Amino acid sequence: MGISERRKREKKELKKSILEKAKDILLKEGWQQLSIRNIATAIEYSPATIYLYFEGKDEIVYQLMEMGFLRMQEYFEPVYKETHPVERIRKSGLAFLDFALSNPEWFELLFNTPEHLCDIDKYVEDSSPGFRLFDGLLQACEEAIAQKYTHITDAKILAMILWSTVQGLVTLIRSGHLEHLIEREEQELIGQTMDTFMGTIFQVK
């Protein structure tokens, strides 16, 4: 390996290390402890070095979210192959649940990040993976409405209802409170909840 290739690899590895340490600080110590100085201390580099890779803390948070949504997108790849809109919506909900329960740290970062503590809007683009995921759900909702599978006429409202339902279920499962209230295995509970939700919202011909 030549000097140029080695330097590129080292830069890539250092950038990855910065992001990993930032994620660790966020999840273990909280937002108040996330700073360029604390990240630099954790990776044993100077704060000036981090500024060679990122504009500041907000860009680091944005890059972390991009990584998380790309990870989440892997769970949705099989969903996009489904042609029936209602089934695609159901599978979207199950994919979200699978991702969230299998990747609790990413779920916490992506969906429980207080917006007022960071400013990432200037980095976000329409092609960002988070937007693509929501657009996929929105398209399925629009198709379901157009084909008269539901009485709801606003696709965004329909998408938000699904999102709220599955995220609420994830939160309850992760908290452990449901174990004391409902005697069901986790997968059985998820299946019954999704079946009830889908049966209430949609009328499949």
- Rounded mean pLDDT is 88
Using only C-alpha atoms, the radius of gyration works out to 20 Å
Helix content: over 70%
- The CATH architecture of the largest domain can be named as Orthogonal Bundle
SSE string, helices as H and strands as E: HHHHHHHHHH
Which percent band covers the strand fraction? under 5%
Q: Given the structure, what is the number of helices?
A: 10
CATH class of the largest domain: Mainly Alpha
From the helix content, strand content and strand pairing, which structural class follows?
mainly alpha
Spell out the CATH superfamily of the largest domain: Tetracycline Repressor, domain 2
Task: Explain what the structure shows.
This protein is an all-alpha fold and 205 residues long. It folds into two domains: 54 residues, Arc Repressor Mutant, subunit A (Orthogonal Bundle), CATH 1.10.10.60; 146 residues, Tetracycline Repressor, domain 2, CATH 1.10.357. 70% of the residues lie in helices and 0% in strands. The protein is elongated and about 65 Å long.
